[in-house]
């Protein structure tokens, strides 16, 4: 069959949203896009997706682009749909619920909620993120230990399907078991199952007081013992974060939130199980950020709680042996952490570290969150073995029968 | 071959898989399974199987898939939406012989269990180590963890601790095509789409959970419970708003109105303060220092909103006394009414006052009494619609009031079910809450798991065949409640 020429295509799309030719900046993990459209609202995005379906274009939703390089490179990207204008905040403060458009800056959402003494209990892991980007990548920071990962705080979602048709699931109340909770599969799906148009979250009041207890050690075994002791205690931390930069000691930070009197007593209890603990009354600005620099390879691993420090130590030692100083940082309290392998490490060395990580764990997973295009080109195994892949493929085909939505970005080439 | 011939032809194969004693074909034996917690939906299952291993479950489902025979999973049969209603042309797969707790892993804070394990038994096994399993439906002594997975069950304490979905990190499932699939395990964040999250709450329509890994939580250092009595529901409701507005997140906030209090008093003599038009039960748990300071705050807020009597409980015996009236309330209405319908709907917390007022108006207009017992903290209403089934037409009028209450919930921006699920019972209300495109997306998701449509068909999503029928009413007390095995919520 004959394909429409680029200009006819662009004209058809332009009926629904401003469209421009992509520039060198419009790439995803090395895959260059052809066109970029910026619909004015969800209705326009829906019409645009419908048009893209008729034109059989591959589509990549993009928020602020801070994590557009995450995941595997898309196989093709005819059209980036920029969600910036799908913004807006509808805060039902009395119900501790907020609905936000996908393009809403996450920081703006946090500001609006903070003004009302409330918060979405998800830390901003990558500065500049949009609401849709946070949900689509499923990045969850330190506070997930108490409040769960971001998907646990989503109570409703509206998604534009491959044909642009909007479908909602969940609702605006926290307790609700009507129908399938489709938001669960959308969260973390990297835009491979639809374009998230808006999300409704449950909120929490900002606790009146906060205390951080921090201790350092050169011995991963000692830090592991602290973490175990914290689990046995009844202090109920909001977060327990490990930070082990490439060189230097490991540090463990324990965040306590609650009433003034309560956090003071709990901080004392925590200090009693850590050696040489210091108590602070703020978290460092960068504490939720992944480790390393923007060009480092960013891995994420999830292991059973008692395996966190042994796994981190194994990775650290293997990195040192390979001449790469690997930084590890993340939620020791949940067993989900990031590791940064320095930019410039040879592709086969990165791959070996990844395999070592996977092979060494009795249970859990290790995936590549973000890698340089050269590493992808060298065949880096982004996902490893993913159990349930046949079901995931069926879910993908049900949502996106022609595999046009962010194709290839996800596990198993989905 | 007719459908029943097909089913009969499978029996030898089913026996080969599950053993002779694992397949029930006798009518009297099958009759035991004809309904779940909603006895007005009943159907004699074609065949009942009682597998003992995941492989047997997979074998049975594979056989069903090969022959296009529907199957229905069943745990303990306490469900309140007829989700486990059997099929005359299908196989009922009961997990009651899969009741092993496989592992209690304290260093990693996980338990691994078979699907038929009773919810409370997980906590019982973890308790000696100072741990517990948080989701606590009031049926927890007898409902199965597999059933909890299917319904995404919550309990009184889900306000603070969340539902089943927030506590599961691993699932082994048998897909509707008969394949055993391992999703996740002891680590969080299984890679790929969150199929665990989507499976939980899927009411047996996406397959059968055959092994479950759950989080165990460290027991709280301190628990304190407050009972506050108010003149009326308005004042009680204001106290709830004040507590939540002050930033306190109690483990539970429960409320009862005068009629529910009267019933509880008649049934269990709970001795709630005389003359109360509403009582509020607030439970706080956590580190002692937090609990103590929040307790003072909650007490003050209740007094400010007009609580005329406050009682506190710091030990388990005193707490049981306070909870007794609340936990018996459902069963207790049997004392003041010959028949009743238990409704389950959700409203945004800020709409509680208005919706309760409209329920009262509905009740006054229709002459049908409604007792209110509910999870106030999260707006989950459980109105009990009382009627006399000996009176001609009363059942229909009660049914109309019950349905109208769901309409009020939807109008207020809430949900048609907070914890009992859709099942068969509410399947025709789904279009009131979701549009055709929403339902179509859900149907596509279902078909990705179950292209043949054999897993618990005609549940959860509406079909034209079903939606002409009207649900009925419960008569008297639920058998589990009558036998003292469960408390109704
Ligand atoms: C007295 C009483 C009090 C209750 N209180 C509460 C409460 O406080 N909170 C609450 O949430 N619920 C409550 N319920 C409802 C009910 O107990 C829960 O829904 C419970 O989770 C059902 O478990 P079950 O084992 O009885 O499941 P069943 O009734 O046997 O089945 C329920 C559904 O789960 C499916 N199913 C069962 N096992 C599996 C499996 N292994 N894999 C896949 N699907 C499966 C069935 O097909 C069916 O759709 C109450 C019920 C009663 C009778």
From TrEMBL, chain A:
Keywords of this entry: FAD, Flavoprotein
> Which residues does the UniProt record annotate as the domain FAD-binding PCMH-type?
28-206
Say yes or no: keyword GTP-binding present: no
Record bears the keyword Ribonucleoprotein: no
Q: Name one GO molecular function term.
A: FAD binding
Q: What domain of life does the UniProt record list for this protein's source?
A: Bacteria
Name used for this protein in its record:
Glycolate oxidase FAD binding subunit
Q: Which organism is it from?
A: Murinocardiopsis flavida
Per the UniProt record, the lineage of the source organism begins with: Bacteria, Bacillati, Actinomycetota, Actinomycetes, Streptosporangiales
UniProtKB/TrEMBL annotation, chain B:
What SUPFAM superfamilies does this protein's entry cite?
FAD-binding/transporter-associated domain-like, FAD-linked oxidases, C-terminal domain
Q: What are its cofactors? A: FAD
Tell me the GO molecular function terms: FAD binding; oxidoreductase activity
Q: Does the keyword Transcription regulation apply?
A: no
Q: Domain FAD-binding PCMH-type spans what residues?
A: 40-219
Which PROSITE patterns does the record associate with it?
FAD_PCMH
- Which Pfam family, any one, appears in the UniProt record? FAD-oxidase_C
Q: Which keywords, in A-to-Z order, does the entry hold? A: FAD, Flavoprotein, Oxidoreductase
Protein name, entry field: Glycolate oxidase
Report the source organism: Murinocardiopsis flavida
Q: What is the lineage of its organism?
A: Bacteria, Bacillati, Actinomycetota, Actinomycetes, Streptosporangiales
């Amino acid at each position: 069959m004959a394909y429409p020429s680029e200009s006819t295509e662009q004209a058809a799309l332009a009926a629904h949203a401003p469209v421009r030719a992509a520039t060198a900046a419009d790439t995803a993990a090395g895959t260059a896009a052809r066109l970029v459209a910026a619909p004015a609202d969800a209705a326009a995005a829906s019409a645009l997706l419908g048009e893209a379906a008729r034109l059989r274009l591959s589509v990549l939703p993009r928020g602020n682009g801070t994590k557009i390089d995450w995941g595997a490179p898309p196989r093709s990207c005819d059209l980036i749909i920029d969600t910036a204008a799908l913004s807006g905040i509808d805060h039902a403060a009395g119900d501790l619920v907020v609905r936000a458009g996908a393009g809403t800056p996450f920081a703006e959402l946090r500001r609006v909620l903070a003004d009302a003494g409330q918060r979405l209990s998800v830390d901003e892991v990558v500065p500049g993120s949009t609401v849709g980007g946070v949900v689509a990548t499923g990045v969850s920071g330190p506070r997930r230990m108490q409040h769960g990962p971001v998907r646990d705080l989503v109570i409703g979602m509206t998604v534009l399907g491959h044909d642009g048709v909007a479908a909602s699931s969940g609702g605006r109340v926290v307790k609700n078991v009507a129908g399938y909770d489709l938001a669960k599969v959308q969260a973390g799906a990297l835009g491979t199952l639809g374009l998230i148009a808006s999300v409704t979250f449950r909120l929490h009041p900002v606790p009146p007081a906060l205390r951080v207890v921090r201790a350092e050690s050169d011995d991963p075994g000692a830090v592991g013992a602290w973490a175990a002791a914290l689990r046995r205690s009844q202090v109920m931390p909001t977060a327990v974060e490990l930070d082990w930069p490439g060189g230097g000691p490991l540090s463990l930070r324990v965040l306590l939130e609650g009433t003034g009197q309560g956090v003071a007593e709990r901080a004392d209890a925590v200090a009693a199980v850590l050696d040489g603990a210091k108590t602070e009354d703020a978290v460092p600005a960068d504490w939720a950020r992944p480790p390393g620099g923007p060009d480092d390879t960013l891995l994420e691993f999830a292991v059973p709680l008692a395996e966190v420090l042994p796994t981190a130590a194994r990775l650290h030692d293997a990195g040192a042996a390979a001449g790469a100083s690997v930084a590890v940082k993340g939620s020791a309290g949940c067993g989900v952490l990031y590791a940064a392998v320095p930019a410039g490490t040879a592709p086969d060395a990165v791959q070996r570290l990844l395999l070592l990580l996977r092979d060494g764990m009795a249970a859990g997973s290790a995936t590549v969150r973000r890698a340089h295009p050269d590493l992808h080109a060298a065949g880096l195994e982004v996902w490893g073995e993913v159990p349930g892949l046949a079901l995931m493929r069926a879910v993908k085909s049900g949502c996106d029968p022609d595999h046009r939505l962010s194709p290839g970005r996800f596990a198993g080439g989905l | 071959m007719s459908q029943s011939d097909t089913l009969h032809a499978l029996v030898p194969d089913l026996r080969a898989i599950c053993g002779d004693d694992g397949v029930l074909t006798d009518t009297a034996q099958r009759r035991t399974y004809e309904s779940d917690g909603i006895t007005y939906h009943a159907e004699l299952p074609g065949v009942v199987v009682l597998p003992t291993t995941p492989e047997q479950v997979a074998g049975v489902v594979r056989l069903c898939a090969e022959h296009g025979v529907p199957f229905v999973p069943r745990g303990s049969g306490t469900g309140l939406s007829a989700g486990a209603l059997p099929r005359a042309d299908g196989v009922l797969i009961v997990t009651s012989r899969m009741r092993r707790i496989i592992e209690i892993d304290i260093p990693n804070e996980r338990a691994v269990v078979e699907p038929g394990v009773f919810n409370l038994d997980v906590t019982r096994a973890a308790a000696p180590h100072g741990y517990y399993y948080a989701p606590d439906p009031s049926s927890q002594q007898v409902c199965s963890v597999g059933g909890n997975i299917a319904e995404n069950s919550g309990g009184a304490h889900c306000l603070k601790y969340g539902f089943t979905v927030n506590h599961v990190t691993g699932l082994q499932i048998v897909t509707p095509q008969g394949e055993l699939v391992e999703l996740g395990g002891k680590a969080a964040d299984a890679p790929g789409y969150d199929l665990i999250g989507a499976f939980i709450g899927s009411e047996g329509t996406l397959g059968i959970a055959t092994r479950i890994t759950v989080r165990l939580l460290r027991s709280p250092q301190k628990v304190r419970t407050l009972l506050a009595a108010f003149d009326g529901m308005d004042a009680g409701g204001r106290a709830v708003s004040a507590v939540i507005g002050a930033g306190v997140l109690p483990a539970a906030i429960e409320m009862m109105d005068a009629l529910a209090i009267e019933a509880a008093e008649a049934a269990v003599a709970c001795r709630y303060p005389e003359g109360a038009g509403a009582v509020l039960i607030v439970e706080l748990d956590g580190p002692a220092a937090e609990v103590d300071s929040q307790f003072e705050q909650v007490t003050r807020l209740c007094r400010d909103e007009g609580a005329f009597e406050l009682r506190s409980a710091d030990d388990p015996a005193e707490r049981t006394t306070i909870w007794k009236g609340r936990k018996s309330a459902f069963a207790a209405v049997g004392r003041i009414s010959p028949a009743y319908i238990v409704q389950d709907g959700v409203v945004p917390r800020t709409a509680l006052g208005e919706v309760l007022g409209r329920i009262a108006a509905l009740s006054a207009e229709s002459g049908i009494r409604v007792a209110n017992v509910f999870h106030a903290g999260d707006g989950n209403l459980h109105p009990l619609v009382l009627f006399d089934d000996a009176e001609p037409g009363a059942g229909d009028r009660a049914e109309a009031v019950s349905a109208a209450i769901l309409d009020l919930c939807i109008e207020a921006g809430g949900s048609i079910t907070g914890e009992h699920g859709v099942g068969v019972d509410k399947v025709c209300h789904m279009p009131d809450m979701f549009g055709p495109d929403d339902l179509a997306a859900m149907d596509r998701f279902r078909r990705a798991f179950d292209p043949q449509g054999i897993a618990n068909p005609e549940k959860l999503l509406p079909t034209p065949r079903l939606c002409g029928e009207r649900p009925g009413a419960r008569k008297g007390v639920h058998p589990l409640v009558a036998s003292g095995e469960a408390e109704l919520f």
